[in-house]
Amino acid sequence: MAKGKDVRLRVILECTACVRNGANKSSKRSMGISRYITQKNRQNMPNRLELRKFCRYCSKHTIHGEIKK
User: Fold this and answer.
1) How many angstroms separate the CA atoms of 53 and 63, rounded?
2) Which residues, other chains included, contact 51 with Cβ-Cβ below 8 Å and sequence gap of 6+?
3) Closest Cα partner for 66 from 31, 22, 19, 3?
4) Distance of CA 52 to CAs 5, 6, 24, 65, Å?
5) Which of 61, 65, 29 is nearest to 48 (CA)?
6) Backbone angles phi, psi at 5, to 5 degrees
7) Distance between CA atoms of 9 and 60, rounded to whole angstroms?
8) Taking the model in full, what pTM does it have?
9) Which of 1, 30, 33, 45 has the highest local Cβ count within 10 Å?
10) What is the per-residue pLDDT across 23-48, written as a single tens digit (0 to 9) for each?
11) Helices marked H in the chain — which ranges?
12) CA angle 46, 51, 57 (to 5 degrees)
């Protein structure tokens, strides 16, 4: 099978709250952007994936959206 024809894709989910709040601001705590790697089925989920995951920088469950590689 060709590389681009796979049904399952590897996607990266990034915390939307960290991105909005500007994670690169300097503070006492080491700030960053929470990211998860997962897979999705291209045929069943053609749109961008959004899941509620735990963000260790926000210390709460937030929405993590799919980003481009």
Assistant:
1) 6
2) 13, 36, 38, 63, 64
3) 19
4) 28, 26, 22, 9
5) 65
6) -100, 5
7) 27
8) 0.74
9) 33
10) 555 445 557 788 999 999 989 989 99
11) 16-21
12) 135
